[in-house]
Design brief:
Helix content: 25-40%
Distance between the termini: 43 Å
Order of helices and strands: HEHEEHEHEEHEEHHHEHEHHH
Largest sheet: 6 strands, mixed
Number of strands: 10
Strand content: 5-15%
Strand order of the largest sheet: 2-3-1-4-6-5
Radius of gyration: 24 Å
Shape: elongated
Number of domains: 2
Length: 386
């Protein structure tokens, strides 16, 4: 099923036609019961030839509905529940790709991952609330025609309120709520990588702490404002986190960003400007030498970042990325990656993202070591630093 979803994502990225994923919760204790077999048979009967059904994880049966909107997916889910006629029907969750957020965010609930038992369900859907809503939905007449068009939104609607542990918004279409499929694709750090991050960050902090103390003093007394600049960036799965940097600009520089956007020397949504008028004298030196990034070693210790991984973009810039460019958020962002080694601002934005995707596909211990060692001369030679 993971391969099926990856294939449909690639098709959607190229062709622009989205799809939805419907997950039906099946407790592990009921995996081999008649009720589960009936659910599987019902999914297969109601699916079209272009759809795919199967086990998503140990506790979720899935239906991938190609070219189907969240509204159409809800009609499908309601039809399956009605056809089952069970007293306590299975809870369902709808995910959509590409995701267009609308409405208010929710919190508290379940997030499913593609990593099976290890990363199964972080927080479960509240079964009683879901069951009560679905029992009501089961009283609605079944939808006989499985060939659902994306525009067919007048069928039975799901009035339950599933809750998810992330802070993303939902795409809302009438009473239909669908979560971002991207939240399922995030890959937690492997144990070996997390161990290297902790050890490496501790060693680096010990080595560079005198330099960081000097840098903090210089920044603090060279211009009004704090020594550390804190900004929201998009991390693993699109979750926002606070990144730490030595302040390189005048205090309140973010408010002047819009007036300088047109002058950006980096294509795409990312903003890069070598002769940025907001830079302080000390800040320019810190950027050229990458010393301003050293406080991010504490982000690595916290687990928000890794030593090696795609550089995190500000949340606003990440939101402007195309769907295929957002796949970089499927892994934990890092201090350095191939982009830093290849020249940073000299690289076109699309090529930057392709480098990140290439790293994600071939992430290994030895490759991380190679990138870390290759970063040292890149920083010393100031390749593409702005």
């Amino acid at each position: 099923m993971e391969r099926v979803i990856s294939r449909e994502i690639a098709r959607a990225d190229r062709g622009g036609r989205g799809f939805t994923l419907v997950l039906f919760h099946v407790p592990s204790s009921q995996a081999k019961t008649d009720a589960t077999r009936n659910l599987a048979e019902t999914l297969l009967k109601r699916a079209r030839l272009t759809d795919e059904c199967g086990w998503f994880s140990e506790e979720y049966l899935a239906a991938v509905l190609t070219g189907t909107s969240p509204g159409g997916a809800q009609i499908f889910a309601d039809g399956v529940v009605a056809a089952l006629g069970a007293k306590v029907p299975p809870a369902s969750i709808i995910y959509t790709y590409p995701f267009e957020p609308a409405g208010a965010p929710t919190s508290d609930g379940a997030t499913v991952t593609l990593n099976g038992a290890r990363d199964r369900v972080l927080r479960r859907v509240e079964r009683e609330e879901m069951a009560a809503a679905l029992v009501a939905a089961a009283t609605v007449a079944a939808v006989d025609e499985p060939e659902i068009e994306p525009s067919a939104l007048n069928g039975p609607s799901f009035n339950g309120k599933p809750r998810f542990s992330d802070d993303r918004s939902f795409e809302t279409n009438r009473d239909v709520r669908a979560a971002d499929l991207g939240t399922l694709l995030a890959r937690p750090l492997p144990a070996w990588k997390r161990a290297i991050d902790i050890l490496g960050a501790l060693v680096a902090i010990a080595i560079f702490s005198p330099l960081m103390i000097v840098a903090a003093i210089l920044v603090r007394f060279s211009s009004p404002g704090p020594a550390i600049f804190v900004q929201k960036r998009s991390g693993l799965g699109g979750r926002a986190f606070l990144i730490y940097k030595f302040r390189t600009m005048v205090n309140g520089a973010e408010k002047r960003r819009k007036e300088l956007t047109a002058a950006s020397e980096q294509d795409g949504p990312a903003f890069k400007l070598e002769n940025d008028p907001r830079l302080t004298t000390i800040g320019r030196i810190l950027r050229k030498t990458s010393i301003d990034e050293l406080p991010q070693l504490f982000n690595v210790l916290k687990g928000d970042m890794s030593l090696v991984g795609p550089r995190p973009l500000p949340c606003g810039e990440q939101a402007e990325c195309q769907p295929w460019q957002r796949h970089r958020m499927n892994v934990t962002p890092g201090l350095t990656c191939i982009w830093q080694v290849k020249g940073r601002s000299r690289v076109a934005f699309d090529d930057w993202i392709r480098m990140d995707v290439d790293y994600m596909r071939r992430r290994t211990f030895w490759r991380d070591v190679q990138i870390m060692f290759a970063t040292i001369p890149a920083v010393l030679l100031r390749k593409g630093a702005k």
